[in-house]
């Protein structure tokens, strides 16, 4: 990382990656778990009604995540491309596949919010049927996240390879990113193979995703002092 352009790209990528972390925790992890009460459909439906504004914020957060990730992968592509063009292209490809999946998945939450307010549907379906459909949409959203999950893992594998090769970042971060990517992929496989989320491991394999942006910002800062 010797040029002003590389320093700027590293700083941008670090900031965008750090921004993804709180948005991901809020929009993808906290809100769905907060709304859904295991084994209590009535409480889940009550949460959906009582916290509709919060859910709408989580939808906006999901949109912001995809936009941020798009700019992030562009910055990483130009920063890491010299160390492996093919790997860099796969990193972008997996991200571009993920974005429409994640965006379309939010239609489940949007529809779940619209159902109780729809005069047209209330004239066709009784309340019990509408409630069942709403619960189905919430579960569909959860399943959709797990489809996107595998691509969140796949983009990390070529990124980890590039980080390992680049020379201006610790190789261990590249290894940790590959491990994180494998963790995401295994989560999707076990989730759909066994119809349970008991075996999810990505929550334990993520350290590389935190270390990368912090290290990028630190290296950009140090490099700036010498330019």
For the structure shown, list the relevant keywords:
elongated; transmembrane helix; DUF4386 domain-containing protein; 227 residues; transmembrane; mainly alpha
Task: Give your account of this protein's structure.
With 227 residues, the chain is mostly helical. The chain has one domain (4-147, 212-226). The protein is built from 9 helices and no strands. The radius of gyration is 20 Å and the shape is elongated. The protein starts with a helix and ends with a helix. The relative contact order is 0.13. The model has no long low-confidence stretch (mean pLDDT 89). It holds the Pfam family DUF4386. InterPro entries: DUF4386 (IPR025495). This is DUF4386 domain-containing protein. The chain crosses the membrane at residues 12-35, 55-80, 92-115, 145-164, 176-195, 201-221.
């Amino acid at each position: 990382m010797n040029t002003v352009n590389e320093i700027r790209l590293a700083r941008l990528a670090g900031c965008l990656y750090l921004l993804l972390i709180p948005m991901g925790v809020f929009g993808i992890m906290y809100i769905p778990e907060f709304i859904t009460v295991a084994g209590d459909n009535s409480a889940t439906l009550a949460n959906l009604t009582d916290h509709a504004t919060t859910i709408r914020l989580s939808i906006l957060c999901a949109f912001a995540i995809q936009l941020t990730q798009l700019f992030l992968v562009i910055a990483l592509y130009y920063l890491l491309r010299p160390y492996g063009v093919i790997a860099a292209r796969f990193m972008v490809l997996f991200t571009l596949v993920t974005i429409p999946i994640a965006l379309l998945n939010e239609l489940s939450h949007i529809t779940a919010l619209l159902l109780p307010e729809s005069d047209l549907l209330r004239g066709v379906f009784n309340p019990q049927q509408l409630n069942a459909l709403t619960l189905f949409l919430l579960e569909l959203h959860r399943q959709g996240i797990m489809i996107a999950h595998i691509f969140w893992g796949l983009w990390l594998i070529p990124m980890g390879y590039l980080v390992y090769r680049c020379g201006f970042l610790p190789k261990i971060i590249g290894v940790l990113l590959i491990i994180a990517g494998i963790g995401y992929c295994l989560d999707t496989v076990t989730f759909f193979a066994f119809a349970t989320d008991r075996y999810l491991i990505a929550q334990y394999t993520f350290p590389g995703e935190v270390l990368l942006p912090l290290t990028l910002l630190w290296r950009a800062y140090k490099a700036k002092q010498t330019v």
